[in-house]
Amino acid sequence: MREKNQFIKNRLLKPLHRQYSQLFTSILLIVVLLGCSQTPEDQFIAVNLVGYEADSPKQAFVVNSDSADFEIVRIQNSETVFTGRVELHFDPDSISGDRLSIIEFSALNSPGEYVIKSTGEPDLISHPFKIEENIYHDVLLTMVKSYYYHRCGTAVGNESEWNYKVCHLDDATFYNDPETSKRVTGGWHDAGDYNKFSGNTALSAGLLLYAYDLNPGNFSDKQLGIPESGNGIPDILDEVSWALKWLLKMQRDDGAVFHKVSQEKWIGEFLPDQDPSTRYIFDISSAATASFAAATALAARHLKEYNPSLSRELYSAAMNAWDFLELNPENKPEGGFKNPPGVTGGEYGDPSDLDERLWASAELFKLTNSEVYLEYFIQNYTKLSLDNIPPISWRDAESLALRAFLSANTPDRYSNDREAIIAHIINHADSILEVHKANNYKNLLQKNQYYWGSNSVGLAYAFDLIHAYEISGESEYRFAALDQLHFILGRNPFNLSQVTGVGSFSVKNPYHQLSEVGKFTSPVPGMLVGGPNNHLLLNNREISSCPSKNYEDTFKNYLVNEPAINFTAILVYVTSAFSKSTNNSNIVTTSK
Fold this sequence. Notes:
The chain has helices at 4-11, 15-18, 22-32, 137-145, 198-214, 235-249, 286-303, 308-327, 354-368, 371-380, 398-406, 415-438, 454-472, 475-488, 513-517, 558-561, 565-578, and strands at 44-46, 51-53, 59-63, 69-74, 79-85, 100-104, 112-119, 124-125, 129-132, 173-174, 177-181, 196-197, 260-263, 279-281. By secondary structure, the protein is of the alpha+beta class. It folds into two domains: 4-30 and 136-578, Glycosyltransferase, CATH 1.50.10; 44-132, Sandwich (Immunoglobulin-like).
């Protein structure tokens, strides 16, 4: 991202979701009732623009219109297949300013492609959507395939229009010692730009592996049409391996991991293979090292059957990283990584690496069954703010650490710790449900959480709800998480899928250099953009007075419309939870 140092300033506001008080929230809700109103032309029917599972709840929203009746029409033959009354007219909310009414059609379960029509002032018609038995499977694979088009150091995409030649083969020079080099080619481009960050790559790889963990039947070999397809390994594991092999290059001999590979300053937009910037290796950080340890331990476990030699290499690297962390118990550098003077762009600093260390310790225990790692977790997890678990991000791995611990086969003597953690997770999930119930669009964000990457924040809460559902079996958690997916895929204030190339009407102009500079007919599909952001405004221009509407589908506005590998990774996890397992090996075709 072009000016991610601004992101850090924004994320320093994280006390808003780490330590906010009930008093502050109450005051904020009073304040936001002022100055947020819908514009008269924003009248539409908001639906999930991908569609709905045949056997799942189905709702759409009439937005800013006094519609009374609706009908659902099958596109194939223009037949009206369902009719009903529009229900539950809500007053304008303080987040979007929209007046919503509910169209309930859960009883319609016949597969097909449809539109919804409503009668009122004015009459409205929705964008097309589908009802299918496994509506999310194909789009899940499209999301995973998007990582292939973020590969660095190799020619990509000869089978599709999104192709480029070998890029960034000179990723080698240390910023603080330009005479010294290390070959660190490979990995994934982080976002709309071409920088690479160890911590964010480790997080993204970990989330993709958890998506596989959650529902391995979704993934198989020959699905994605990537170069490794057909090698007997599920394609998602091959794609993650591409990132992991780069991470291995970023590890120092003593186990520490270099924080990032990036340019010094922003110099403009280019195709990957035409990028003229000098790219540097920056110093190590303990946060990146801990995330590395967690991701490599997790991957070593999953790849043991499929790629034993890489699994062994990852195993050794995870141990080496942990050895460094043990010898260096304090956050390094002090206060977290900081860009050197004169360096702009992504910093990804983390003032506390405890959550990443706990994630690593839990995954290392699962890998080795050694209670040395388990004891570290038990002795330190209570130092987390378990009464206010932050959403997953490159900076916050608490939810990942807790999930890893609870999924481990721990001895009975740790049952009290397990029960205590479960109680915190359920309480956290219940607090998310309260937000869900208060939001007319049924998404999971509080009013003050529309900052950079807000789409991924809502999905991080969906991750937590899915975990609570796994623990408790309470379907309310699952359906609330599904509502967040509906929001992302089009049932939102923009009537727009926030995922490129996914749904009948989706983001067209993401801040993604390959997609824009390449002059393709459409952007690389399957990428989640950051979403509404009213904490940082491009050129200080407010798009809307309503927090959830501070978004535009414009290339230059990277503050709201840039994709990132970690954004898409949490989307892959949530989508995997709602995709039904399949053993087919249909290749995702993205050629034009």
